[in-house]
User: What shape does this take?
Amino acid sequence: MSAIQKNVEQTSKSYSASFTQGHLALPPAKKYLVLTCMDARIDPARAFGIELGDAHVIRNAGASAVDALRSIVISEQLLGTNEIILVKHTGCGMLTFKNEDAYGVVGKNLGQNEKADSKGLASASYHTTVVVVKEGDREEKKVREERGLTCDNNNQNREEALAELKAKKLDFLPFPELEKAVEDDVAFLKGSKLVPESVTISGWVYEVESGETRRVV
Ligand SMILES: [Zn+2]
Assistant: This one.
């Protein structure tokens, strides 16, 4: 068992021992959803004042409304939420690369063997891109094992990984400007026919440096 798994197991024991909120209903009590980034420095419950059972919290790389649309529609249409709080943040990794950079790093790393891979990850200059790559890396490894391919043929692996990326037309959805990205995502949600006009939508920026959340739109 990994140290992370042990931590889950141990925490579960103490958490469940004093847990008293098993009565909560499935739909969020305060009928809203928060969309924010998966960044490890954001604690949505504490930073945005969310009590257990109050709201849906949807997280992905960059707090992308495009990426989160499936969950947003489920939250609103099936589980009754009617307000969206969208929160991007300073220092977001999505500000640091472009799609072509991500494609390059993914292709490079997926073509390497385990040893070279961990070395490459540690020394890669695209720090945040590498986080994305690590996630994709796990998925791609699974695919490779299923196909019975070895890591010996780096070029073939790399080509296949890139071909799969292109076939999926995977857009990593990076953005060059923080406030504009918040505005664009709010506009995307307001313009989507899947989000009714009755849904209240606001866009915010969380500052990882100060812990402050300020409204943009
Ligand atoms: Zn982020």
